[in-house]
Amino acid sequence: MTLRIETTRDRGTTVHYLIGRIGSENVAEVEAEVHRDRGRVALDLEEVMLVDMDAVQFLVACETEGIQLLHCLPYIRAWMDREQSRADGTSGG
To answer: Is domain 3-88 annotated with CATH 3.40.50.920?
Structure first.
């Protein structure tokens, strides 16, 4: 399974729809897409089925930068929360 990125732009907001698997080999590509845009940026994760550690760390960084994550699957959100807790130096449970 590979990653496909579809992009829409409307009223100053760019939404990148990520479809498939986000792995370490894809992070640079997604990061380039995100930083190419000006204005509000969102990543729609509804069709992301699998991520790895690099992808999770990237998504945490995106959110920290103010990039909105839409339709994030619960397992991805839970993993992101654990990674954020580690980065903050708090226990994640």
So the answer is: no
Domain boundaries, the chain: 3-88
Say which residues have a Cβ less than 8 Å from residue 15's Cβ, sequence separation at least 6: 7, 8, 9, 41, 42, 43, 44, 70
Tell how far CA 76 is from the center of its chain. Answer: 9
| Cα 35 from Cα 49, distance rounded (Å) | 23
**Predicted local distance difference test score (pLDDT) of residue 93:** 52
Q: What is the pLDDT of residues 75-92, one digit of tens each?
A: 999 999 999 998 888 655
Indicate the SS3 state at residue 31.
Answer: helix
